[in-house]
Design a protein that fits this description.
Elements: H1 3-15, H2 18-25, H3 29-43, E1 48-51, E2 54-57, H4 59-87, E3 96-100, H5 102-107, H6 113-118, E4 124-128, H7 131-139, E5 145-151, E6 164-179, E7 190-191, H8 193-196, E8 200-204, H9 207-216, E9 226-231, H10 234-242, E10 248-251, H11 252-257, E11 264-269, E12 274-282, H12 289-305, H13 307-312
Parallel strand pairs: 3-4, 3-5, 7-11, 8-9
Antiparallel strand pairs: 1-2, 5-12, 6-10, 6-11, 6-12
């Protein structure tokens, strides 16, 4: 009986829905059901029964819940203790200068602002730059590292800079956010670039995403969708999607932190496209203790707070 399976069980009991629990845990509903059948077989009991449109715990399920809650609580305490050992003191007087791409500024320093502040990782000054600017800053010694996002197919291009090392710590799949009114058109939850050609598109102005969009709709057999907004105004983009006027691009990590609002569905792009977030550094330089320590603490925070996401979207 693995602790992970008990976490699954408790999430189902809390949600009273396999579907909602699977979304929260970043595991397929089929995989979640299989794990629960195996747990029931191991214990020789039935843990859930149907109730209306949802489910509820059986008597045996309620008994397991009390034990599982304590086991998972102890596991969480151990994880938290080791995490705090890695991040060190909750605050420090040293301010670290971080060079980061615009996506990282939004996905890490904006979406995770509360988590960073809670664990003393907001003690930094962030310089938003494009990838080539970060490479130039590392090259001239202005900084030892940068936090960047890069498309999976472009990682090999960094080989042109033999003194640089790229270490990813998050992988993201590009997705499409669409109004719920389109759900019937995509019953399998997937959409292709060809299917997007008849839709209106509003998307965020960000270098890596811009490069992806340009490639996705290239070729004689590809017709680009009608672009009605290309901007950094994320509120306006989301408004257009909610009001059934456009679709937009997102990614699995952003969606895991900022849950989709009512009336919006998420579609997997087929074929899948991925990008990474990671540390780009000059491996030949002696590491600054402050900068290196900050990166290590940031990675520890993401491993601790987003372990379910990392479990599904492993590097």
């Amino acid at each position: 009986m693995r602790i992970e399976v008990l976490e699954y069980f408790l999430e189902i009991a809390e949600c009273r829905s396999f579907s909602q629990a699977s979304n929260n845990l970043f595991i397929s509903q089929q995989g979640l059901s299989k794990a629960m059948r195996a747990l029931e077989s191991e214990l020789g009991v039935v843990l859930f029964r149907k109730k209306g449109r949802g489910i509820e715990l059986t008597e045996e399920g309620s008994i397991l819940k009390s034990h599982a809650t304590e086991i998972v609580r102890q596991s969480d305490r151990a994880r938290e203790r080791f995490f705090k050992m890695q991040v060190g003191p909750s605050a420090t007087s040293t301010t670290v200068n971080v060079f980061a791409t615009s996506y990282v500024c939004n996905a890490i320093f904006n979406l995770l602002d509360g988590e960073l502040g809670e664990h003393g990782l907001d003690n930094c000054s962030v310089s938003e730059c494009e990838l080539n600017e970060i490479i130039a800053a590392i090259e001239c010694g202005e900084t030892n590292f940068g936090l960047v996002n890069i498309l999976q197919e472009d990682v090999a291009e960094l080989d042109a800079f033999p003194y640089l090392t790229f270490t990813p710590f998050l992988s993201m799949r590009i997705t499409v956010k669409a109004p719920k009114s389109l759900a019937a058109q995509f019953p399998d939850g997937e959409i292709t670039p060809q299917q997007m050609s008849d839709l209106s598109l509003a998307y965020f102005n960000e270098p890596v995403l811009n490069k992806f969009v340009k490639r996705a709709f290239q070729g004689p057999d590809r017709k680009a969708p009608t672009i009605i907004l290309h901007s950094t105004n994320i509120e306006r983009i989301n408004s257009l999607v909610r009001n059934s006027k456009a679709v937009t691009f997102s990614d699995t990590f952003t969606q895991s932190v900022r849950k989709d609002t009512e009336g919006i569905i998420s579609l997997d792009l087929n074929p899948p496209h991925w990008f990474f977030v990671g540390v780009l550094e000059n491996s030949g330089l002696q590491k600054s203790s402050d900068q290196y320590g900050y990166v290590q603490r940031l990675r520890a925070l993401i491993r601790y707070k987003h372990r379910h996401y990392l479990g599904k979207y492993a590097l």
